[in-house]
């Protein structure tokens, strides 16, 4: 699973990394401790209804997927399983036409018993592109975007720490993933297969190291502290 992650690229860096037309999130502050219900930058494509132009932008989204038809949930809906994202009624509409990318430097997982948890930081060679889905609803007369990260069975280094991991994309699949043209049942199944194949390739590049247990408490960890992701001294 993915319950906390780090994202230390500025908005302009994201524009370069994902070849965006523009953005609506200039207020983004880098964070080394992003938790569910926090606001995160996501990459998505939307069509302008008046011009027909499709634009790829970075926008703010709450990491707690909340479509308009969902009543207030007791727990945040921040991860969607790849095994059911194309068929479950909560996710499948967004998976069909509102997929997004959640950029991250890496994510945290924990091992050990309650009260004695050791934090690990899992990362790649550079910026990672987690596959996500997005939705929007009206809150106090304003549109509020929210998102969930798609997870899969963990493998390689990730599987040594936890049984789940985010499903990651590679640049050669960004266009296909972000295309907002609605998918039918066959299209959704094909997209799941594509994500499984691509995320297998990324999983081979993931490494992990232990980090300071200060990150264990999301309420007290300083999200601006870059040392949260640094390896523990031997």
Report the count of strand segments. 12
Determine the strand fraction and express it as a percent band.
35-45%
Question: What is the approximate shape?
Answer: globular
**Beginning-to-end CA distance, first to last residue:** 27 Å
Which segments are poorly predicted (pLDDT under 50) over 5 or more consecutive residues? Answer: none
Helix percentage range: 10-25%
Give the rounded overall mean pLDDT.
93
Structural class: alpha+beta
User: Major beta sheet, specifics?
Assistant: 9 strands, mixed
Q: C-alpha Rg, in Å?
A: 17 Å
Please report the number of helical segments: 5
- List SSEs in N-to-C order: EHEEEEEHEEEHEEHHE
Set out the fold topology:
Layout: E1 5-7, H1 11-18, E2 22-23, E3 31-34, E4 39-47, E5 54-62, E6 79-81, H2 92-97, E7 99-111, E8 118-139, E9 142-153, H3 156-159, E10 164-166, E11 168-169, H4 174-178, H5 185-203, E12 207-210
Parallel strand pairs: 2-5, 6-9
Antiparallel strand pairs: 1-3, 1-7, 4-5, 7-8, 8-9, 8-11, 8-12, 9-10
Please give a structural write-up.
It is a single chain. Strands 1, 3, 6, 7, 8, 9, 10, 11 and 12 form a nine-stranded mixed sheet that branches. Strands 2-5-4 form a three-stranded mixed sheet, with helices on one face. With 234 residues, it is an alpha+beta fold. Helices cover 18% and strands 37% of the residues. The mean pLDDT is 93. The chain contains five helices and twelve strands.
Short description:
Helices cover 18% and strands 37% of the residues. The chain contains five helices and twelve strands. The strands form two sheets. Strands 1, 3, 6, 7, 8, 9, 10, 11 and 12 form a nine-stranded mixed β-sheet that branches. Strands 2-5-4 form a three-stranded mixed β-sheet, with helices on one face.
